[in-house]
Amino acid sequence: MSTARRARGRGHEDDSHDEPDERWAVSYADMVTVLMCLFIVLFAVSNVDKTKFELLANSLATGFGQESTEGGADTAEGVIVPPELQDDDGVVDLAARAETEFESLVGLRDRMSTSLAAQGLQDTVQFVIDDRGLQVGLVGAETFFADNSTDLSAKADAVLDTIGDVLATVDNQVSVEGHADHRVSAAPFPTNWELSGGRATQVARFLVEHEGLGGPRVKATAFSDTRPIVPGDSPQALASNRRVDIVVESNEEEQVRALIPVSYTHLTLPTICSV
Fold it and tell me: Which residues, including other chains, have CB under 8 Å from residue 257's CB and lie 6 or more apart?
C-alpha cells in the first residue's frame, strides 16, 4: 500500500517537471519596459525647446555652484546673470551699475530743476527717483489745467517747454500718467478715467508736437483715482492726488533698477480745491 502511494507520488513529481518554466517572461517584460522608456526619452530630447533647455541647464549649474553655459551665475543668490550685465572680465557689480544709474538720474533731475528755477517755476513740480527712473510730478491740476478741463494753462506750457528741452537730450522712454482725486467727475467727463486720460494725453502731445520727442518714446496712461498719494478729503490731499506724472524710465536692466535708492524732492502745495 505504501509502495503504491510512493509510486503515485513519483508520478505526480514527474508530471510537474513536464510543464514549461515561464519565469523568463517576467525578465522579458522588464526589458521591453526599459526599452520603451528609453525611446520615450530619446523622442523627448529630440524635440527639446532650446530656451527651456538653457534655463534648465543654468538652473542646475547654479544649484551645483558652477558657472552656466552662457551668462554668469550668481551662485550666492541663485540668480542667473545675463551677459549684458557683465563687464569684459565676466565680473558682475550690480550695485555699482545701480549707483551709476542713480547718479545719471540725479543729473537729469538737477538739470530740470536748474532750468525751472531760472524761470521761477521751481515750485511747480516735485521729483522722485526710484526703480522706475525719474518721476516728474505736475502736482495740483489747477496749476496746469483749467478747471474741469484738459486744456493746458500758460504756466503748463512754460513748465513742459523747460522739461521737454532736457528730455530731448536723452533717449529714455517717457510715460505720461494722469491721475484724479476721488470726487465724482463733472460734465463733460463721464468718469475720472476720461478726465485723467485726457490730461495725460495733452501733456504727451505737447512733448511730441512742441518739444520734438519721438512718438514711439512717449505713451499716455490714465489711472483715474486709483492711485492716490495722500489719503483723506482735505484740500491738500485732493490737490496732491490731482496730478500728471512724467516718468523718465530707466534704461537699465531689472536687476540693476531694483537696487536704485529712492529719492524725493518735495514741494509745498497750495490748498486749492478745483477739479
Answer: 98, 101, 131, 132, 133, 250
User: Any idea which residue has 502736482 for its cell?
Assistant: 139
Which among 138, 120, 134, 130 has a CA at the least distance from the CA of 166? 134
Architecture in CATH of 94-265: 2-Layer Sandwich (3.30)
**Residue 192 φ/ψ, nearest 5 degrees:** -70, -15
CA 37 to chain centre: 41
- The pTM of the full predicted model, rounded to 2 decimals, is 0.65
Given the C-alpha cell 544649484, which residue does it identify?
Answer: 63
In tens, the pLDDT along 195-248 reads 999 999 999 999 999 999 998 999 999 999 999 989 999 988 888 888 999 999
CB 176 within 8 A of CB 207: yes
Every domain of the chain with CATH number 3.30.1330.60 lies at: 94-265
Please name which of 158, 150, 167 lies closest in space to residue 208, comparing C-alpha atoms.
167
State how far Cα 207 lies from the chain centre. Answer: 25
User: Is beta strand 79-81 parallel, antiparallel or unpaired with respect to 72-74?
Assistant: antiparallel
Buried b (16+ CB within 10 A) or exposed e, 29-39: eeeeeeeeeee
63: cell is 544649484
Pinpoint the alpha helices (H) of 23-93.
24-46, 50-63
